[in-house]
Amino acid sequence: MPTIRVDDSPAALAPDAWNRLLAASAQATPFMRHEYLQALHDSGSAVAGTGWQPMFLSVWDDERLIAACPAWLKTHSYGEYVFDWAWADAYRRHGLRYYPKLLVAVPFTPVPGSRLLAVDDASRLLLAQALRGLAGETHASSLHVLFGDPADQAALAAAGCTARAGVQFHWTNGGDADFAAFLARLQRDKRKKIQQEQRRVREAGVVFEAREGAAISPADWDFFYRCYQQTYREHHSTPYLSRDFFARMASDMPAHWLMFTARRGGDRVACSLIALDPQRRAAFGRYWGAVEHIPHLHFDACYYQPLAWCMAHGYQRFEGGAQGEHKMARGLMPTPTASSHWLAHPAFADAVNDFLAREGEAIAGYVDELGEHTPFKTKSAADAASSRAGES
């Protein structure tokens, strides 16, 4: 008979056993590696003191780990990117308590991927059911599993959760050998705009350097963190992640990081950090910041430089992060995402489920509409351009 365990730190679970479950998952990402989650904990970035009380849930068959997920009891909704502030406000206005709530996610990381790690679907369903049980035992108002993969969604639906649709903007490799070939596939106005933006950055005297893995020095990480803090300061907010977290990334997961540093006159002026999944040839835009304003530098550092790097290194996907229709004009196309939710209060559950159904229909229509405004040349336009090139 499988047994269920709840631990207050990822350290209670063997890294090798956890990472084996992750490696077998359909949509594994570096952000679900044991090292990443442990760094969030040990650096004080996602702990009870910051409103993230760890409750790592696992399912065991004797001594064998057969399913596990990172869970937190939350006292707020910051750092999640699937917004339920309106739900919390509705609870408050009705004199009800919304927090704590039980959350399964990667803190501060809106990257879709596997969340319920399991050796098979039966074990995943056990884990989903155990999450429902844990929500009841902790007197949580609700359960939320963010940006899960289809296997997660199926298990959670069977456990009584309702899906919530979302959309992000991702680039997938269309066979482009380099950035010039990518630009050639874009419609003329989109291509000219990108070329103009990059030209303005060059005319400002900015050059980029890319460093990967162990080649990223402590000084590089220090400057990155200065930029990271500046971005939050400009938004009158406080950084979620500590400098110690990034020090742990440099030491424990160096192969998963790529850093672009912008220099002008030899001085660093901006930085963007990209996460890498070398095995699956995927890259993820994570953080950016600048110590001075230079027009269009954000687009170059966060999209054009990473896309060019991906093409040059045979990467097949680049995820630009949450939200942002402006990414479409830069070749990142709408991609559906999903999360799963369960509310304990019957009346609120009915209201939220009705809302999610209507929201899902609206998002499906929105994605369809966006698809009609592709930044790429249509086949007929591309054929005509090829024909003209052949005649000249």
TrEMBL record:
SUPFAM superfamilies noted in UniProt: Acyl-CoA N-acyltransferases (Nat)
Database matches in Gene3D superfamilies: 3.40.630.30
Domain of life: Bacteria
Pfam families: FemAB_like
Name of the protein this chain belongs to: N-acyltransferase
